[in-house]
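Hey, resending since the last one bounced:
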Amino acid sequence: MEKKIRDSSTLRERDSDVKVLQPRKAATRSRAVRREAWRDLPDRSQSVGMLLRRAYQFNMALFQRYSPDAELTLVQLAGLYAIAETQPCSLTDVGRLASTDPSTTRGIIDRLLKRGFVKIEPDEKDRRRVMLTLTEAGQRITEEMVSTYWDISNALTALLNPAERVALVFLLQKMLSKVQDLSMDSETRGTNGLG
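The structure tokens again:
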């Protein structure tokens, strides 16, 4: 059962296992007090957020090193992949499938249009909407990049045995599904999903 929130600066518990951080007030402590508090923090090497950040950095380095198209970013690849899966599709579909907000989605599509990877056409059912499809060049680069990206993903987990790979994917999917649930809940409250 979800507890009601009365003070937005507190830590809220949801379903007794997921804690959602609320915005906190600006720190007014002195530099010496902050430095002392830093020493009392848990080992950063055990922080899931820090470990995910480092894994993401390693993933990005592999992507930049082995990508056949140095100008294409991971977010743009996610957009291409989303279009390839569901074309023709709307901007909303791309944003949902690529997990990007509307302004980021629009920026992705603008860059893909400039490179000739995507074309836009009016929706036949609703002329106010536009539908996206891949061009031949877009289809080629998507196939090439997705294949390369799977090789990169395998390189990222090369030191794990098959059971550890399955466990890692399972745990990340579970964590992200909880984040998505929180995000969906927040849309009805008008917050960012973390508060």
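The longest strand covers residues 118-122.

Sorry for the duplicate.
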